[in-house]
Amino acid sequence: MMKSIALAALLVVLLGFLGVQYYITSVPALEAPITVGDVRDVESEKSLVVTLVDSEGQRFTVGLRGDIDKPEEAALFYIRNPDVIPYVFWPALRSNDEKRVLELLEDVIESDASDVAAVRSIYSVLKQRN
Hints:
Shape: elongated
Order of helices and strands: HEEEEHH
Radius of gyration: 17 Å
Distance between the termini: 53 Å
Number of helices: 3
């Protein structure tokens, strides 16, 4: 009986970890209108970081690190909710997560949000390699 309870508790803990992992690595469905909250272009580290904010105040930070002129060498990263869990996720090249980020950035560009130049830069790099 004790082994069954311990096994059940272990399964619950593992499912909890899977839920947290899914939460921090998935691309959120931001509610329109989506605005550009912050843009950081760090030349010394060759990175471009954009923070998107939806109508409910949820933030999503997305960026590229590496040479933007060489799309295959620029690595995409994002942070789903930096206030709750500041976990930086680096999706694989041409992965489904990268395609979801591409779709989200396309929505931001189509919505004519202010300061979309940085968003267009990230979008064009992702578009070139897909």
